[in-house]
Amino acid sequence: MKLFAFTQAFLLFCIILIQDTLSLPTSLPNNAKDTSLNLALETRSQLERRDSWDCKGSGVCGIHINPESCLQALAKFNPAVTYRGQVRQFQDNGGARLGSCFVEYACAKKKDYISAAEYGVSTGQSIRERGKSIYSLGGCKKCGTVWFWGSCRVTFNYCYHKGC
Questions:
Q1: 27-39 pLDDT per residue, tens
Q2: What does 127-159 look like in DSSP terms, one character per residue?
Q3: CA–CA distance, 54 with 22 (Å, rounded to integer)
Q4: Which CATH number does 59-159 carry?
Q5: Where are the domains of the chain?
Q6: What is the pLDDT of residue 17?
Q7: Structure pTM?
Q8: Helix (H), strand (E) at residue 104
Q9: Which InterPro entries does the record match to this protein (predicted)?
């Protein structure tokens, strides 16, 4: 019985000792490589690493989209304006092609609109450059999206009528 009590006491002591050892706070960084003095820049760099592309779009995108129409719609973004919300621009495909290409700037999270505006990422000029990258860097031929700045994106897609 004494051995059982001693064993329980020993196990309890070990558990307490191990738990205290495992929950010790970590040390603070001791050199400049381990920390950033400006958390806003650190956050910004994380947001900027988000760039990626996909060539998805409407099921009729490959048939009806004229890439020149998408670039013309993209050119309607005013380079001097900072956009603080969702914006769409349209351009008729022209000729025998039906519908329009629409270019959309949008963010899934409101905070991304705010930070993109603060850092100059949502200017018309920046949106134009990102949009052109759908073709130049993303390898898309007609429709596509470039994702950047957290949940923000520029998308080229097809719609049947203007304003859709």
A1: 334 444 444 444 4
A2: HHHHHHHHHHTT--SSSEEEEETTTEEEEEEEE
A3: 44
A4: 3.30.430
A5: 59-159
A6: 46
A7: 0.69
A8: strand 100-107
A9: Mug117
